[in-house]
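Summary for the steering committee. One of the milestones for this cycle was to obtain a three-dimensional model of the protein with zinc ion bound, which we needed before selecting residues for the alanine scan. The sequence and ligand used are listed below.
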Amino acid sequence: MKSKVASFAVDHTTLDRGFYLRSTYTALGFYPLRSYDMRFRAPREKSYLSPEAIHTIEHLMAHFLREKLGNKVVSFAPMGCKTGFYLIVKGWTPMRKVMEAVADVCREHSSLRVSGEIPGLTVEQCGNPTFYNIEESNAALKEYGMWLDEILAQM
Ligand SMILES: [Zn+2]
């Protein structure tokens, strides 16, 4: 079925792990916005992130990317298919700078030991604060961060 959703036009059977610029928008007729796909897993590998790990990474990235990029971060959200995340950033931020910020968060927050290191994981701040997986989040961030470092070294 034809659709106006940009990502539905991408052939997911050949899609690799990656950091993709998916769409650019203009908000309020002025602000350029860029939507990136942070694809942690190639869909064809059928090796999905667990919902608990996704929730953990969501909290870490939502908080620490804003420490790196400030209010340039508009939104960070998981993909329902559990292969990655969407990141929307104000468009005048260079893509390399965004990738470096993501790689930094991966490196700096992939050796967690206790849930207290996950920002916003309280009953006041989160809808399901006992739902997390530190071990899997550590492994997924390490893996994606190493991949990003390799790509950045070649850019
Ligand atoms: Zn939460």
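Key point for the committee: The longest helix spans residues 134-154.
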